[in-house]
């Protein structure tokens, strides 16, 4: 029997509203009697606030209220640990909130009749600071005598994970070739189209209601409840249309302060951040320094790996512990190592906090691992595809954490398919790379590079993943309407369309009969976050369970038939503190990419000509949406690898505008992206689906570096590959002179 709805390219459920402008984003919302908010950010990276004088600001025409730390009932928040004040300043309910630890700390809220009045009054607030010693380098932050940013974290270490497997001395002794390198990856700004915005008000049932862009309605609700000391039934979170997220909306930005102002004033309050406020006010991708040493035998079998990772967590934890968990697993790549020693650290500094961003520690780990693999292939005079196929994990192979991946590992298949579609040939039992066409100008050269990666689905590492769906079946003799109530966020990836398709398939009705009621804590159970490539996997299983129960009720003549079902993913476990042994994740996605580039030796400009991405998605619920995710991830990874150069100096953002922080435009994207969609089902996935939204991001940067090596003969161990970095390194190597 063929699938009725899944596996087909149906039109996105939000397409017409978004292209016609009917869809309302948070910045579009308004209500009668609405007030406007502006936020005063910290003016110091590390300082104690001695006093806040709001008298002049309060006297400004149109000002309704000014809130400071003393007005927050429980002045703390944090997705993993509540280590950040909602507002910094004296008089807080929590000790230590009088200290700002980063320039993105929020100090005061100004609420006024107009946005202009709120902005003018904000600039009249006078804050007296006592500067404190600051630290901006994670290596320095771990040294004895460094300023301690949080009293319960000695040496400023947020988290330290370690893996110990096998016998390292024996592993190095068995190696005929050893390759060593130190890799540096940068901050990255999410740069979503819609800056932070939202509207908070008291709804008809007396609930503090916040309409805002986010990734997990129930987590937003929980953090608002905690900070305002309100029960869940008094707080409601609704997501309207959301203009992108990429992990940047996982942590709080405006949710709590909007709720605070609306609750205190019992009036609607709106805020819209400028692009500069957005860049300054939310977390970034973790910059990491990764030192790696790999050994292999002459015939290409890996013998040992030793890796140290140091990541800059910034001033607060955000999701650093979870991001570091991923980097710990992925910094050794998707390969079999009999002997492994890994130490990873997330470290507090006075920089902006770092947190979730597409790939969640995977891009950093994959960059080091795949650069090492390509260097090893060169040292062994072996094709990079050949070397990978000798070492990739297969069913039953043990990870560095001494447990196998879940069944149906397809790394060998994605590597082979990507190689074939990229022009690799297999002759006499060995793989050979394709010849690259010569560049049309004497100052330009072309090259091709290859990389592969794997990525977890879900947060895992001992966190119990779950997702709830509610399905209602309406009608008489036949089902006339299927109502799906679900909290999953639609952040542009097409999740709501996939949910509708899965609901139609699970119930056995045409797609037109499905009506969606989504992203509202008042109407849906907890879906978990739209992140970690988890939502299709988790939501699909919850929808199937709810549909099965609702159909049973329908057969028992219940009208309407209503069922709620919570899917619990297979259990996982955290790293053993000594050995790292664990069952880290319940599902994975697998990907390989080949990238062909052209580099201008005179200017250092890199042009991406062709990308082939082979991605095992298990089951493509909507193939066109899968292609969109692949293409979008590659464009975003192109920015990360080549042009996005986020700069901070002593805690201050030096690139606060899109004129100084450059992201890819239509003129910067690859000339061609070929999506090779593989469908080897995950045994636990709905209809076999795996998560895939992050996977195509991971191999891109190391593949570009390998292509640049192929073109110029020079290795680059640091990204982004901005023109001046490329030119200087080529000049040092005597290339292009």
Kindly estimate the percentage of residues that lie in beta strands according to DSSP.
25-35%
Which strands sit side by side, in order, in the main sheet? 3-5-1-12-9-10-11
What's the CATH C level of the largest domain? Answer: Alpha Beta
**Main beta sheet, described?**
7 strands, mixed
Distance between the termini: 64 Å
Radius of gyration over all CA atoms, rounded: 26 Å
Q: CATH topology of the largest domain, anyone?
A: Aldehyde Oxidoreductase, domain 4
CATH architecture of the largest domain: 2-Layer Sandwich
**Portion of residues within helices:** 10-25%
Give the overall silhouette.
globular
CATH level 4 superfamily of the largest domain: Aldehyde oxidase/xanthine dehydrogenase, molybdopterin binding domain
Uncertain stretches of 5 or more adjacent residues: none
Could you tell me the mean pLDDT? 97
Query: How many helix segments?
Result: 17
Structural class: alpha+beta
Number of strands: 27
> In total, how many domains does the architecture comprise?
3
General description of the model:
With 737 residues, the protein is an alpha+beta fold. Helix content is 25%, strand content 25%. A seven-stranded mixed sheet has the order 3-5-1-12-9-10-11, with helices on both faces. Strands 7-15-14-13-8 form a five-stranded mixed sheet. Strand 20, helix 13 (495-507) and strand 21 form a beta-alpha-beta unit. Helix 10 runs parallel beside helix 16, helix 13 packs parallel to helix 14 and helix 15 (623-643) packs across helix 16. It is globular, with a radius of gyration of 26 Å.
